[in-house]
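#help-structures

NK: newbie question. if I give both the sequence and a SMILES, will the prediction place the ligand too? trying with flavin-adenine dinucleotide
OV: yes, paste both and it writes out the complex. here, I ran yours:
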Amino acid sequence: MHKLLSFIICFCYSLFLSIFLSTSPDQGTKGISLFYVETGFGHRGMWSKDDKGADFGVDLGVEQSLHLRRLKNKLGTRQLPTAEIELRGTPAILISEEGRGISGVSKMLTITRLHNAISSAAAMRRITSLAIDYAHRRSAFSRHLIEHPLHVHTLSCMEVETRGALLLTLEVARLLGAAEGRNWGQQEDAQQEIKMVIRDEHLLRLLTPIAKLYTAKQAVRVVSEGLECFGGEGYMEETGIPCLLRDTQVLPIWEGTTNVLALDMVRVLHKSRAAVLTHFLDHIEVRYCSCRVIFQSSNPINFSYLLPLFFQEGLSHHLPSTLKTPANQVIQASRLVVDFARWSMQEEKSVGTGKCIEDNDKGILQVLESSARNLAYSFARCYVGYLLIDHASWTGAQATDVFAAQRWSNQQLCLVSAQGCHSVDHAMDKELVNESLRKMQPPH
Ligand SMILES: Cc1cc2nc3c(=O)[nH]c(=O)nc-3n(C[C@H](O)[C@H](O)[C@H](O)COP(=O)(O)OP(=O)(O)OC[C@H]3O[C@@H](n4cnc5c(N)ncnc54)[C@H](O)[C@@H]3O)c2cc1C
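OV: that's the protein plus ligand as structure tokens.
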């Protein structure tokens, strides 16, 4: 089916072909459809003039129907130009169901979000390696930086963050690979296979926005810390380090900002009717709890279908004693996170202060929406803790792997609490924010 796109402004521009989303604004996301556009960039662009004869932009693409309005002047990622492009009567092929563009593009979003997480982990690794190297060369207060305990501690915290980000990213890649390359019928027990597939799909859907948003935030923090590790030199353009910080700052923005992704995670919870929470907790508990703990748990989860996997994959290994406390911290925190998410999704009539919420759905949404960012961070911290412990528990792991897992698990893993929900007060949030605005306005 061919369509003519009448008008749309896009940020991106590819040399070969582009995919654009066309929207009917009055229909919200339901009006968004997915189109394929051949840019025909082989044509030389022709600059067009405005009424006064000044350069206005450049026409590109199929019969000049793509109009490049201007290149953006960006903070970073200048190696990759970003343009405002106007489409005027551009031939395009509708490649999703009409109005179902978001669902059509969702697979691509999973991949681009994974790419974002890869860039985040890579930026962290780069700055951390550079900073560690610099610490062996630079002397301050008559010693190399690497001889100063406080500086070493700073570097070590960066290293733990970097390892955590990498493990989370690789886990999403593993789940995506499993989803894409699945060969049905490998397991003898078909029911069990279906359950495992569903579990992995839920985990992938939950962890994709979380990994993107969390690693991006970590990257900005770690790269900024890394820049500081070079002292004044880190601020100088000729070192290339300011460029790294500028490039990193886009990671929490494109492919969805932190808030937008946190709300995406909330949608996953709703869409799965909280089943994803069961899978999240199962995945962590089955790995680390002894059978005794699992079956004494008050949690009404049926683990039986996972038991074959438990033994088949050799997961019943005993954790080294050094990892028992971290594992316990991660499990306890994961339960709190899941309890909070369940609580806020359940038919609660009152929120915190005892205030009755008449419109239950709206009330629940408000608590969940306002807490979405902290909830996403909590999921991320627990899951990264789980991965670091997992990594440290295999034969061949180093003492430093154990230490990294311990360091990670000692931080506050769960940032939400069902008891603390009275602190989610949208009206007061708004009042606080608007008060600042009022103070900035000149008196009448
Ligand atoms: C260098 C660069 C290149 C880009 N390249 C591309 C590209 O190739 N293709 C493409 O399609 N896009 C591209 N983008 C666009 C990018 O994806 C968007 O800028 C980004 O998703 C944020 O959307 P926005 O700019 O509309 O911000 P807004 O939606 O206006 O967000 C502003 C602020 O409001 C918050 N916010 C918005 N909605 C909510 C909500 N419901 N609840 C809570 N908070 C909210 C956001 O978190 C953010 O902090 C690019 C952007 C940049 C900077």
